[in-house]
């Protein structure tokens, strides 16, 4: 039996739960394979709407882009903001369409590392899957750090606006960063039953907040809008890089706002009809995110008064734009509070997804000796407790960048974007080179829809976007470079690579055999 046809039947034993029974499996009901390992399935507690809520709340594009304006404003100004979102939206759509086709065929919780395994040639399946799993896990953990970082910066900005003489020290920002992370940890550890309701609320909060902020800014700025030329044709380059490179660096803000659209795939064991619903959620989240963020960005640019002040403001660019639009400290603070709540919802949602990725990857022995702890659930709390703790510890370590770098936010955002895009690139590249064989001509694959003849163009274009942006995002955001302005993401990514390689050669090469219980998991996903 060749590798492609054997994939669906891959199982570490003859016990494969019947389709009629697998959906009844809960956290406290464990399957055991022939090696004695517990196979844990999570309860379906997320509806389609709550899954869309968690996906949109995590993507949260309009707030994510608004809260990271300091990344883009020196790297092209309004041109990079307006047209950069368009470029990033096209890139994100190419990626999400490529991955959605694979997800429809293989609705598996591991997402990128599962897909790498089922699409790769037999000799490369395990190492490519292992690498994709590490990049996905590390990228999502870094994304928790991004959201905690943005929440901390927004609070510092609110204090700075109310007290202009206040100047936050790095350690104060770090403590706020830890505080937001701790709250997200507590919710995920002790309040899992209310998370679906929180995600639904976060979705409605984000959509409602989007309209409230837009209407308030336009109403308060009535008669004092910036001219259209300043919005659509003003170029600002304060990076020291050539204009072309500055524009690409400015894409980091919009790419970040559209990254992590794979959230739904990692909740597959907890949502109904995942083979249909997960791709729908992924594509819908990107479409909503790109459209709302572009509209929001254009409105902000029309309502600001002084771009130079916005770039250099101690409050951060977003709060300064709100203040220029409303000319009122209380009004600006209320508007940014909407963003703060939305970003915190994203923070706890990202921790939910990140812990699920760690849990599932560890269940397949992807994280070395630690897997035996990380791949289990707490018998009372009914959550992957050690996976949550593991993710939180690494977020705290990641946040130490704040104590030594003046561009910590750039480094943290770059780290999450680069590692997640690498994880996307692996299955997309395999689809580009092998899609016709393993998707179109594989009788064991149930394709609900296909890119068909467009696959080489779509996946090839997505790969070009991933390669160009991922490489450029490793560069410092500005020249000349000093110790405090260095983009330490290259160090972070290198450390993750080294840890991945070390784990593979010391443990993974012997013990990692790819995703376990594939037939059972596919039956579970396709049964409802």
Task: Tell me the number of structural domains.
Answer: 1
Give the strand tally: 2
The largest sheet, given as strand count, sense and whether it forms a barrel, is:
2 strands, antiparallel
Instruction: Report the span from N to C terminus.
Output: 29 Å
The average pLDDT is 85
Just name the CATH architecture.
Up-down Bundle
Strand content range: under 5%
Query: What is the helix/strand order?
Result: HHEEHHHHHHHHHHHHHHHHHHHH
The CATH topology comes to Amino acid/polyamine transporter I
Strand order of the largest sheet: 1-2
Q: What is the helical fraction, as a range of percent?
A: 55-70%
Membrane topology: Multi-pass membrane protein
Transmembrane segments: 46-65, 85-108, 115-134, 140-162, 174-195, 201-220, 241-261, 281-302, 337-359, 380-403, 409-433, 454-476, 488-506
InterPro entries: AA/rel_permease1
Keywords: Membrane, Transmembrane, Transmembrane helix, Transport
């Amino acid at each position: 039996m060749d590798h492609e046809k054997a994939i669906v039947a891959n199982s570490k034993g003859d016990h494969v739960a019947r389709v009629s029974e697998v959906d009844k499996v809960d956290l406290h009901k464990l399957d055991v394979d022939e090696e004695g390992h517990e196979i844990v399935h999570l309860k379906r507690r997320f509806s389609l709407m709550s899954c869309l809520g968690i996906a949109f709340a995590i993507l949260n594009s309009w707030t994510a882009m608004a809260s990271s304006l300091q990344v883009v404003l020196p790297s092209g100004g309004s041109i990079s903001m307006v047209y950069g979102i368009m470029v990033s939206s096209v890139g994100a759509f190419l990626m999400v369409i490529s991955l959605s086709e694979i997800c429809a065929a293989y609705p598996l919780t591991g997402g990128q590392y599962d897909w790498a395994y089922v699409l790769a040639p037999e000799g490369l399946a395990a190492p490519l899957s292992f690498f994709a799993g590490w990049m996905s896990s590390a990228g999502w953990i870094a994304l928790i750090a991004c959201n905690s970082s943005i929440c901390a910066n927004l609070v510092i900005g609110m204090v700075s606006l109310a007290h202009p003489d206040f100047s936050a020290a790095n350690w104060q920002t770090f403590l706020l960063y830890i505080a937001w992370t701790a709250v997200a940890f507590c919710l995920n550890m002790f309040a899992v039953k209310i998370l679906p309701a929180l995600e639904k609320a976060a979705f409605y909060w984000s959509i409602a907040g989007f309209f409230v902020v837009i209407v308030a800014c336009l109403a308060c700025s009535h008669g004092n809008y910036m001219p259209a030329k300043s919005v659509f044709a003003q170029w600002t380059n304060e990076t020291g890089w050539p204009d072309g490179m500055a524009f690409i660096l400015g894409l980091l803000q919009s790419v970040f706002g559209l990254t992590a659209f794979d959230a739904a795939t990692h909740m597959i064991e907890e949502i109904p009809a995942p083979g249909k619903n997960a791709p729908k959620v992924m594509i819908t989240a990107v479409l909503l995110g790109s459209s709302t963020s572009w509209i929001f960005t254009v409105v902000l640019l029309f309502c600001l008064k002084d771009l130079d002040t916005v770039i250099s403001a101690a409050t951060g660019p977003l709060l300064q734009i709100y203040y220029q639009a409303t000319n009122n400290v209380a009004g600006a603070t209320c508007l940014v509070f909407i963003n703060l709540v939305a970003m915190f919802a994203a923070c706890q949602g990202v921790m939910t997804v990140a812990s699920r990725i760690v849990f599932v990857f560890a269940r397949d022995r992807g994280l070395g000796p630690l897997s035996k702890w990380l791949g289990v659930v707490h018998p009372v709390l009914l959550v992957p407790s050690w996976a949550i703790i593991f993710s939180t510890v690494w977020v705290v370590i990641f946040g130490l960048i704040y104590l030594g770098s003046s561009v910590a936010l750039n480094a943290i955002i770059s780290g999450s974007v680069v590692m997640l895009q690498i994880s996307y690139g692996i299955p997309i590249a395999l689809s580009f080179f092998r899609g016709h064989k393993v998707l179109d001509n594989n009788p064991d694959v149930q394709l609900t829809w296909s890119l068909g003849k467009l696959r080489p163009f779509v996946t090839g274009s997505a790969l070009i976007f991933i390669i160009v942006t991922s490489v450029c995002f490793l560069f410092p955001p500005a020249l000349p470079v000093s110790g405090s302005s260095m983009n330490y993401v290259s160090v972070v990514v290198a450390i993750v690579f080294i840890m991945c390689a070390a784990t593979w050669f010391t443990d993974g090469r012997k013990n990692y055999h790819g995703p376990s219980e594939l037939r059972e998991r596919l039956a579970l996903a396709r049964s409802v």
